[in-house]
Amino acid sequence: MSGSDPRDELVEHLPAMRAFAISLTRNGAIADDMVQDTVVKAWTNIDKFEVGTNMRAWLFTILRNTYYSSRRKSNREVADVDGVFTESLAEKPAHDGHMQMTDFRKALGELKDEQREALLLVGASGFSYEEAAEMCGVAVGTIKSRTNRARARIAELMGLRDDESLEMTDDATMSVISSSKVSSF
Prior knowledge:
Blueprint: H1 7-10, H2 14-25, H3 28-44, H4 55-73, H5 84-89, H6 96-110, H7 113-124, H8 129-136, H9 140-157, H10 171-177
Helix pairs in contact: 2-3, 2-4, 3-4, 4-8, 7-9, 7-10, 8-9
């Protein structure tokens, strides 16, 4: 972005931050709160942002750190492990594609946090392995490994064979589960 004030660019990344936050938290209200906290932190620390670097990666790093900080603080909360409460909030699928999307979301939710995070950063958010590794503070090989394990685990949980494909209408979802990106963001 060519604007002189990096704050002008913050709003452009809200939809991607919200999608990432929802994927991490699996709760829209909590995700919205996390995005709001991230924007406040970014706004108040904008002087720490290096103009000319990747604003989106900087914001995702703040969001990720906010998520893990909140997880450490909420050890006393009861988790919705089986998705019982979440399922009561969701609309039931109308056709096979929706059913597969429900299965996909459930499988995504069963991944280890680190694997889900790597998969979403690289697959859905379009970050390179190198950018994701930098945001997570790990080696590039670790991100690649987590991404590949996550894809394999989703395929296993959904009972997919190598020659099968999902009937998804969403390029973002397809890029998460396929090793070659369907689209970029």
